[in-house]
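--- STAGE predict ---
source: upstream dedup step, 1 unique chain passed
mode: sequence only
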Amino acid sequence: MAEFPTIPYTPLDFDHDGVTDRARAEFEFMDLRRSVRDFSSEPVPREAIEHAIRAASTAPSGAHRQPWTFVLVGDQDIKRQIREAAEHEERINYEGGRLPAHWREALAPLGTDWEKPFLEIAPWLVVVFEQRYGLGRNGERQHNYYVKESVGIACGLFIATLHRIGLVTLTHTPSPMAFLTKLLGRPENERPFILFPVGYPAQGAQVPDIRRKQLDEIVAEVNSES
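--- STAGE serialize ---
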């Protein structure tokens, strides 16, 4: 096997005996996270969002290609254009019959509809694009691997980071999303993946009263005696 440059791994200096307590505390903290649609217009420093993106970019990726682009939108006029385009598509989904009945039924407990005011109210929109293929220094096309998996992991880290620093977000995926490529001037090799409104929750913000699956509903264990 060919040899490649390496550096020593620096493990976190945690007491091994406390791993269960730390895991429990992390679950209890993350269990407070909710998708929020009621945003405050209070400004959020750009640097905070940039650090959150840097945290997200520590995600593992196929062949370490890092096939993501995070587009920051704070301009009010561009946010308005995004809202108008998103609501146009979503209105067709909800009222024009593009969403099948079973999908509309599944969404009903969340109280969502085609109106998306948060796209203008939230101080930042972060639109994540997946890079279907990479571009070398001279513009040559490079293959990316496990693109959706890689970008999905990065988005998960972004959500967790926002929660940890006291901000809220929503995974908004207007369908279709091609308008984002045009509005944000992205190249041919990129495709919109998720749109995140980011900010502080509005005073008195409400969220749907829903439950998360319990551990025995999401975990299966296999051992040699099974």
